[in-house]
Write a structure and sequence with these properties.
By secondary structure, the protein is mainly α. The chain has a domain at 34-85. Helices cover 67% and strands 0% of the residues. It contains three helices and no strands. It has helices at residues 20-53, 58-65, 69-86. Helix 1 runs antiparallel to helix 2, helix 1 (20-53) packs across helix 3 (69-86) and helix 2 (58-65) crosses helix 3 (69-86). The longest helix has 34 residues, at 20-53. The protein is elongated and about 80 Å long. The N and C termini lie far apart (80 Å). It comes from Curtobacterium poinsettiae. Keywords: Plasmid. Residues 1-20 are annotated as: Disordered. It holds the Pfam family HTH_23.
């Protein structure tokens, strides 16, 4: 019987952080940037829905925002569905 080969390490060795203080600072900045991005994205959708409500086409809104027309249509459709569920008497 032959002896089994020693187990191999799976993957690359883990990285070690060389500057803990800078790492925490970077993580905090990343969290802040992510929060700002989410707020901006939510505001963009709100403005697009309002623009559609006053008569702008989804194509014009999409061109202004820099996204596809189907994306804007999805935003509007989702907003209508949410409004229908939150205001069943309207």
């Amino acid at each position: 019987m032959t002896t089994p080969t020693p187990p191999r390490r799976a993957g690359k060795p883990r990285k070690t952080v060389t500057d803990e203080a800078r790492a925490e600072q970077l993580l905090d900045e990343l969290r802040q940037a992510e929060a700002l991005f989410r707020e901006t994205a939510e505001r963009r959708v709100q403005l697009a829905i309002e623009a559609h409500a006053i008569g702008l086409t989804t194509t014009r809104i999409a061109e202004a925002v820099g996204v596809s027309q189907p994306s804007v249509s999805n935003w509007v459709r989702a907003a209508r569905a949410t409004d229908a569920h939150s205001n069943p008497n309207d």
